[in-house]
Amino acid sequence: xxxxxxxxxxxxxxxxxxxxxxxxxxxxxxxxxxxxxxxxxxxxxxxxxxxxxxxxxxxxxxxxxxxxxxxxxxxxxxxxxxxxxxxxxxxxxxxxxxxxxxxxxxxxxxxxxxxxxxxxx
Length: 121
Prior knowledge:
With 121 residues, the protein is mainly alpha-helical.
């Protein structure tokens, strides 16, 4: 991640540092005015390597982004899996879609009263 990437995103959103500071304050649960964070955020954007991870994380979140860590020694087929998970995010999504289809089919089986039938009194 580079400062340029964060500055580019700031420009894409058409935000100034003050707007970023308002979002940052909201992210950290602060009731302090945004002007309190203006200088520290400006410094963080100027030199990302000298900033704390927490500040950078908050900036990324404020800019509507996420930070992911990819371990270089993990095989590509294992990347994206959570601990103790046996399937990839794509497989999880397919499983959820299948379960949703099964629930919808069960709700629409003939001979069973659906939730909409209760309203037809």
